[in-house]
Amino acid sequence: MSITSTVQRGVALLLCSALTLPSFAAEKKTAEPAKPSYELPQPQRETLDLNMYQSIRQEGLAHSHVMEYASGLADGIGARLTGSPNLKRANEWTRDQLTAMGCVNAHLEDWGEFGMGWQQLNTWVRMTSPDMAVLIAQAAPWSPATNGPVTAQATVAEIKEAKDVDQYRGKLGGKVVFLGAPWEVKLVDKPLSKTLDESDLKKLEEYPLKPPSEEWRKDFTKRMELREKISKLIADEKPVAIVVPSREMRDMGATGGTFIDDSGADLNSFAYQHEHMNPVPIAVMAIENYARVYRLVKARVPVTLEMNIDTKFLGDHEHGFDTIAEIPGTDPKLKDEVVMVGGHLDSWASATGATDNGAGTVVALEVMRILNALGVKPRRTIRVGLWTGEEQGEFGSYGYVKQHFGYVPLSTAPDQIKLPEWLRKPAGPVVLKPDQQKISGYFNVDNGGGRIRGVFLEHNAAIAPIFEQWIAPLKDLGVSTLTLRHTGGTDHEAFDSVGIPGFQFIQDPLDYGSRTHHTNMDTYERLQPEDLAQAATVEAIFVYNAAMRDQMLPRKPLPHPEREEQSTSPLKNVMPGAEAEEKDVKEKLEKEEQQKQPQTPPAQEPQAPKEPAAPQSQPPQQSTPQQ
Ligand SMILES: [Zn+2]
Predict the structure, then answer these.
(1) How far is the centre of ligand 1, averaged over its atoms, from the C-alpha of 179 (Å)?
(2) Residue 236: inside a domain, yes or no?
(3) How far is the CA of 353 from the centre of ligand 1 (A)?
């Protein structure tokens, strides 16, 4: 976003306001309901309270308590898988911390039924022959337990398609199945940690004119169905357990004892639902350990393993909860309006989820602490939301948004109805609740523990000149970049889906994509105190500005998925001399026929299915070049 375009836009807005204000005043006389302030022309200049900028910087940078929250959450509570007792503790702990720092109305909100509660109690694997060796592994999420400690031979099954199972019939029973060939481990010859340099930020600023491919959606469904089919075929053979190798990460990050332990380690992405339960105990193993066993088995050396996957299932129908708390607004006219800030509280199970998304959680806590410590009396209410079920499909944020602001009905077409909700096409029209007009915006941190470098504007061009002014005094903290691009896989999407300005910040990637994202190494050590203090300071300033300005933040036009097909289908009758297509002629005749008929009642509204969501782990973060 260049400065020139900002100034031009500012002038345009000024002209616009000069022209439209009198007519608005005239409208008022006829007792029309007042428009929400986000629909009014925005002021050319933001009124920034630079004294408050300084106070927030002082409190956030010099008196930071963000690492105390981080240790409380990551060390004191630990892993926070949705449906687990630890997550319940984290919900209660964050609620109590928010109350203790001075927030009001701190409470938990039920977003709905999730699935099975599950805990990993212990997992160990060792080789006893041909050599004694401790192997690094943990249970895949929602893995059933082995029958206590078990001893079994290892075998390898390389199954890419369902028919590949045939060659292993009668060979897997009573064995530990190492599923698939390991990937090639190469030298770690690049730094695992990355910060965004000038050229990375420049690239982010450029708006991609070609829409991203949606092919991965199709592939994902196919892969998912195949995996579930394979898991059932293997289960029929009655092996003792399945071991999978960790997936790869950027620049050989998933080596040296680091492994990814998320739904990708399960044989089904919906392993938390009873009907999709893992049929066999599954562990994910560090690549070097996995590859050693694989090489031995392939060389026809008998390998004996001892292992114990010790896990516990809780209820089948656990509910998920969000932690919510507020600093109440004080302006009589604006206090019913809300500005929201948040991140997700849940994590995976093999580490303490410090960067994903302990970081976003403790930054949001620290934002609220800073504002409370300064005794801020915001004009609008500032509300924090700490979501759960994010890792399985942004359930907590979509559930909250549905209960308070609105939702997008999903397609019920036959090919769509069998898909998981986050894969289904939105059908629209968007269903809104009155409070959708009372929320100015939502700010989210969930791209690891790196400092904030700017904001993804989610195609909201009207907001660029506003944020441009907000970040000008933050250049020395490294905040410089606004991009109109979309970024996926974080909870701001729930707000954006119903037309509420929702933003994920651009963050330095550090070792998120190479070391910590969904791994057994996502611990407190991966957090950088200065980066988190910076993130809390910057986010507190954004939240403060949004709560204090005269108007709510400008919005994009409301999404209309129901018009999507019509607006993207090719224009008709463009090619001179082309004969009309048979179906168009038919359509035209039908239309004429209909017009002759008496008025028919409007078409039935589409059924209202549950909230849509996109998973954290599956879609490519196409807008973030470093991912
Ligand atoms: Zn996350």
Answers:
(1) 27
(2) yes
(3) 9
